[in-house]
Amino acid sequence: MEYTIDSAAEKLLSSFHAYYNVKEYTEDEENAQIKGLPLRALCEYYEKSQKYVLSQKAELWSENSEEFLFLFQVEHLTKELFEKCKDYAWDEGMKLAHIGPGHMYTYVTPMFVCGTCDEDAKKALKKCRKFKSFRFSFHGWMDLHTAAIEVQNNQISSNAGGRSVEKVMKKVLFNSNKKRR
User: Fold this and answer.
1) Domain-by-domain residue ranges, the chain?
2) pLDDT given for residue 176 in this prediction
């Protein structure tokens, strides 16, 4: 199926509404072009698991997991723009994360929907690695996942951590019309 940048972003966001708290930015809003970046939406996911005996006050263990997905929409992705957006997403993810006892992991995911992409931007996206542990991982860790789709040639790229995001993008954008058995 042929997508435009807008239709691909809309399709992804409509599927994300089932799992994420989605905050969409419009061009009219002040925050839409935060620091000159083409941020389309911020998607937040929170999960808490716990085990207790008889009462929630007698908690044996708990773990909190979070994901912050930043959807950027741009006509042409350059390496400089990729680096700016990646750094913005990481810094904002650090601010949004709830680090402390019980925190297991936080994934920060800058996702790009673009018409075209420079080869050096694609290489930087694929080689991107960012990881941080808190108190020797006793308070969890943060990991950066990146993914991009070029709608002109329907090509999806990701880093090693973003392979799961790449699978989701393929499923939403290219397999949604197939019937399931």
Assistant:
1) 5-49+62-174
2) 60
Q: How many CB atoms lie within 10 A of CB 2?
A: 8
15: CB partners within 8 A, 6+ apart: 172
> Environment class of residue 7 by beta-carbon count within 10 Å: exposed (0-12), middle (13-18) or buried (19+)?
middle
DSSP, residue by residue, the chain? ----HHHHHHHHHHHHTTTSEEEE--TTSGGGGGGG--EEEEEEEEEEEEEESSSTTSEEEEEEEEEEEEEEEEEEE-HHHHHHHHHHHHHHHHHH---STTEEEEEEEEEEEEEEE-HHHHHHHHH---EEESTTTTT-EEEE--EEEETTTTEEEE-GGGHHHHHHHHHHHHSTTSPP-
Give the integer Cα–Cα distance in Å for 24 and 43.
Answer: 8
Q: What is the pLDDT of residue 32?
A: 47
Residues of the chain below pLDDT 70: 1, 27-35, 137-138, 176-181
The pTM (predicted TM-score) of the whole model is 0.86
